[in-house]
Design brief:
Elements: E1 50-52, E2 55-57, E3 64-69, E4 74-80, H1 84-103, H2 106-122, H3 124-135, H4 139-159, E5 169-172, E6 175-183, E7 186-190, H5 196-209, E8 213-217, H6 224-232, E9 242-244, H7 249-258, E10 264-268, H8 271-282, E11 287-291, E12 297-300, H9 306-318, E13 330-334, H10 338-350, H11 371-386, E14 390-393, E15 408-411, H12 418-421, E16 428-434, H13 437-444, E17 449-450, E18 452-456, H14 460-469, E19 474-477, E20 492-493, E21 496-497, H15 502-508, E22 510-518
Parallel strand pairs: 7-8, 7-10, 8-9, 10-11, 12-13, 12-18, 13-16, 15-16, 18-19
Antiparallel strand pairs: 1-2, 3-4, 5-6, 6-22, 11-21, 14-15, 17-20
Helix pairs in contact: 1-7, 2-4, 3-4, 4-5, 7-8, 9-10
The structure holds nicotinamide-adenine-dinucleotide (NAD).
Length: 521
C-alpha cells in the first residue's frame, strides 16, 4: 500500500533478462541474504504476550503460536494464543480507560498522537527490520509502510483538532440545535498480514483520535510489529487505551465481533472474514467497518502512454510482492495495442529482483507470506495453465527455501477466466483485450469486488466518463496505487464498507448527537 510509488532503478540478478515474450526465459534467481536471520537480534523481538491495561501478560491458556519467517521457513518467535476470556479482559480494560481518554481536550489527544509518531520515528530501523523479517517484504516496502504509518498518526493528530459538522443554529422556530461529535466507546480491530503495522495504524490513529479506546487482534501470522508498537508507546498512551490480544480469528476476532460491550468492529481482511464478522456483529447491532479484498481492473485505451502505463504497473502490480488489495492485477487493454503493451510490461517485469529482504535494498519481490498462501497462489497458476492461459513471463514457484513465486504476466486470458476474476494476492497480472469502451466497462465492473481501478487515456472526456462509471471506491487516471492520508480509501460491493484514512475515517469512528434547546422567551 504505497503512497509514493515510483518505479525504482534496479540492478543485479534480474537485470539482463529482457523481452521474454513466450515465457522461455530462465527463471529469476532468489537473491539470498549474506547470513540467515541477519535482519534481527533476539533483543529486537517484542514480548510474545498479550498487552492489556498497559502491561504485557501471558495468555490464560498458556498456549503459544509460532511466528515464521517466510523467506527461510524458520520460526523466529512465539506469541501467546489468546482466548475469548483474554479478549474479555482486554475489553474490560478498554472500557475502564474510555471515559478519561474521551474527556481529553482535542489538543491533549493530538499531542499524545504526535508523541506516538515521534516514538515510531525514533525506532524506524527496528520496526522496518521486524516487519521485513516477519513478512518477507522488501526493505523499500517496509520503509514506505513505516513512513506512511508515522504520517497516519500525524495526519489524525492534526485532523482531530478541526472537527466538521453542520453549524449550530435555529433550524426550528424557537429552538437552538447543537450537533456534538462523540466517541463510540470501545472499538474492536482485526488486521491482516500484508501490511501489519500500516493497517494497524490506519485503525489505531483515527480510533484514538476520535476519542475511543480499542482492542486489536493482529493477524496470527504477523503479530510482531503490533506488539512492538504497544511496547514502544506504553509510556505515551494511558493504560487500557490500546490493548493487543494475539490469537486466531475465529476465537479472538470472533469474540470482539460478538462482544456486547464493543461498540464497533473494524476488520481489514478477506471477504470470508468480513462476512463472519458482520454476522457475529449483527446480534448486538454494533457498527461494522470492513476493508476487504480487491481485484483492481486497469483499463488501457489505445491513446494511452503505453510505456508510462507499463512502468507504473511494474510498481503498482508487484508492490509488496502483489500481496496488495489495490494491486493493478487485472489489465484490460484495447486489442489494437495489446501486443505492444504486453511487450513493454514483460520488459519491465524481466528486470525485477526477487529475494530476501536482507539481500539488498534493490530487492523488489519477496516471498508469499506462508506455505498455505504459496500453495494457493501456485494453485491458481496451475489451473490457469490448464485453462490455456499463457505465461508471457514467470508462471510458477522458484526453487529453494522460502515461499517465492516468479513475477508473472498471464496472457491469452478469456473473458470469465478464474485468474481474472478471483483475488490471487500474489505477483500475478492477467491481461485481457477488449474492442469497445462499453465492453471494457462491463467486464471491469463484472466482479464482486469494488475497491480500486485505473483508467489509462489521454482523452479528457473519456478519462472522466470512464472513471465515473467504474464501480470502485478509488479510481486513478493515468496512475495506480498512489495514496495519501488526506483522501479516503475503501471499497464498494464485496470490498466492504467504511473508509480508512482522511476525515471520513474520523467520521466513521465517531457518532453525532443532536442536542436541541427550547430557547423561546
Ligand atoms: P484474513 O481474512 O484471512 O485475515 C484477516 C484477519 O481476520 C486476521 O487477523 C484473521 O485472524 C481474522 N479472522 C479470520 N477469521 C475471522 C473470524 N471468523 N472472525 C474474526 N476475525 C477473523 O485475511 P488475510 O489473509 O490476513 O489478508 C488478506 C486479505 O486482506 C485480502 O483479501 C486483502 O485484499 C485484504 N486486505 C484489504 C485491504 C483493504 O484496504 N481493503 C488492505 C489489506 C488487505
Amino acid at each position: 500500500m504505497s503512497h509514493s510509488i515510483t518505479p525504482t532503478p534496479v540492478r543485479g540478478a534480474g537485470a539482463d533478462r529482457r523481452g521474454l515474450l513466450g515465457g522461455t526465459a530462465a527463471k529469476p534467481v532468489v537473491r539470498r541474504a549474506p547470513a540467515p536471520g541477519s535482519l534481527l537480534q533476539e533483543a529486537d523481538l517484542p514480548a510474545g504476550q498479550l498487552f492489556i491495561d498497559g502491561a504485557f501478560r501471558p495468555g490464560r491458556s498458556g498456549k503459544l503460536m509460532d511466528v515464521i519467517d517466510p523467506s527461510s521457513e524458520r520460526t523466529i518467535a512465539q506469541v501467546a494464543e489468546g482466548t475469548a476470556e483474554d479478549t474479555d479482559t482486554a475489553v474490560a480494560a478498554a472500557i475502564a480507560a474510555a471515559p478519561a481518554w474521551g474527556a481529553l481536550t482535542p489538543k491533549e489527544r493530538s499531542e499524545l498522537l504526535h508523541r506516538v509518531a515521534d516514538r515510531l520515528a525514533e525506532h524506524a530501523d527496528l520496526l522496518t527490520r521486524l516487519e521485513s523479517a516477519n513478512t518477507g517484504k522488501p526493505s523499500a516496502v517496509a520503509q514506505d509502510d513505516l513512513a506512511q504509518t508515522i504520517d497516519t498518526f500525524r495526519f489524525m493528530a492534526g485532523a482531530l483538532r478541526a472537527p466538521t459538522s453542520a453549524a449550530a443554529g435555529r433550524y426550528a422556530e424557537d429552538h437552538l440545535s447543537v450537533i456534538l461529535r462523540e466517541p463510540l466507546g470501545v472499538v474492536g480491530v482485526v488486521t491482516p498480514w500484508n501490511y501489519p503495522l500500516l493497517m494497524a495504524a490506519w485503525k489505531i490513529a483515527p480510533i484514538l483520535a476520535a476519542g475511543n479506546t480499542l482492542v486489536i487482534k493482529p493477524s496470527e501470522q504477523t503479530p510482531l510489529t503490533t506488539l512492538k508498537f504497544a511496547e514502544l508507546t506504553a509510556d505515551v498512551l494511558p493504560a487500557g487505551v490500546l490493548n493487543v490480544v494475539t490469537g486466531y480469528g475465529p476465537v479472538v476476532g470472533a469474540r470482539l465481533a460478538e462482544h456486547p460491550d464493543v461498540a464497533m468492529i473494524a476488520l481489514t481482511g478477506s471477504v470470508r472474514s468480513g462476512k463472519a464478522v458482520a454476522r457475529a456483529a449483527a446480534e448486538s447491532l454494533k457498527r461494522v467497518h470492513l476493508e476487504l479484498g480487491g481485484k483492481a481492473p486497469v483499463v488501457i485505451f489505445p491513446d494511452a502512454d503505453l510505456a508510462a502505463a507499463a512502468s507504473a504497473l511494474r510498481a503498482a502490480s508487484f508492490w509488496n510482492s502483489g500481496q496488495e488489495c489495490g494491486a493493478a492485477c487485472r489489465v484490460l487493454v484495447h486489442e489494437s495495442v495489446a501486443d505492444e503493451f504486453v511487450e513493454l510490461l514483460v520488459k519491465e517485469v524481466a528486470t525485477m529482483v526477487v529475494g530476501e529482504p536482507a539481500a539488498g535494498e534493490d530487492v523488489e519481490i519477496g516471498p508469499m507470506i506462508s506455505k498455505a498462501h504459496f500453495e494457493r497462489v501456485t494453485g491458481y497458476l496451475k489451473r490457469a495453465e490448464a485453462e490455456g492461459l499463457r505465461a508471457a513471463i514467470g508462471g510458477g514457484a522458484l526453487e529453494g527455501d522460502g515461499y517465492f513465486i516468479a513475477p508473472t504476466v498471464l496472457v491469452d486470458v478469456p473473458d470469465g477466466a478464474e485468474a481474472a476474476r478471483e483475488e490471487i494476492f500474489g505477483p500475478v497480472v492477467t491481461v485481457e483485450t477488449f474492442t469497445e469502451e462499453d465492453e471494457a466497462l462491463t467486464r471491469a465492473n463484472g466482479v464482486p469486488y469494488g475497491l480500486s481501478a485505473s483508467v489509462w487515456t489521454n482523452d479528457a472526456r473519456r478519462s472522466h466518463d470512464v472513471a465515473s462509471k467504474l464501480d470502485a471506491g478509488t479510481v486513478w487516471v493515468n496512475a495506480h496505487l498512489v495514496l495519501a492520508n488526506e483522501v479516503p480509501w475503501g471499497g464498494f460491493k464485496g470490498s466492504g464498507y467504511g473508509r480508512d484514512l482522511s476525515i471520513y475515517a474520523l467520521d466513521d469512528y465517531s457518532r453525532t448527537k443532536h442536542v436541541m434547546h427550547n430557547v423561546a422567551r
